């Protein structure tokens, strides 16, 4: 097991964290609060956000931490854009952006904007949010972007056609999740390449098999069965948050970019996840689907 991340201070640092009300997200928020960060907590449920806010305020009281909540449904890109606009209106810089929110799709669902649900939430939302917040990250002394990916990326592939990706006849909740996790790594690699000469780093990570709410009752039956069988091997959200916290706080990775981390160390990833041509192709596809400048 990975050792706990060293207790590097985050006093004076502003951190935006999506998926803040889930097990992994709330554990990350509490740990960053203990280090004195100012947290922008993003979630879609106001009641759950209120609970997380209270936990964060308690955890960070001694360190002088502070927090605010932002309500957004990340499956809707209109909400993502409004979120970015609100953050930009009220903050001059952003030190750390943690794209943590993620879902395991259940039944085949197309959003009101025409995107498959897992693809929209797990990939397009981070793509849009990150691109819109780049000016704030550039305004920080040293901006960090952290994307929570998964070992599930080994089974993923990127379908260029949105029509094919949205087709009910081809849909599998497991496949959709794996594809989106591969997209997280490819996006990170292309982002790191584009930001190479800036003050911003971009890295991604596998948090481990974490016992969180990701496996909701609507998730595919096979995945829920495998999850139940793996229950004895699952780690706590606090343990799962260690690599995210390490990437957000450690001076050791202040100049490290474009890497995939496991247990707070660079890890092995699928060959296709490191393919530069695939990364560029994904960026082009994502830009076309979201309207973000390519």
From TrEMBL:
Q: What is this protein called?
A: SDR family NAD(P)-dependent oxidoreductase
What keyword terms does UniProt attach to this protein? Oxidoreductase
Q: Which domain of life is it from?
A: Bacteria
Which InterPro entries does the record match to this protein?
A: NAD(P)-bd_dom_sf (IPR036291), SDR_fam (IPR002347)
Give the protein family: Belongs to the short-chain dehydrogenases/reductases (SDR) family.
Mention any Pfam family matching this sequence: adh_short
Q: Does the keyword Oxidoreductase apply?
A: yes
Recorded hits in SUPFAM superfamilies, A to Z, give: NAD(P)-binding Rossmann-fold domains (SSF51735)
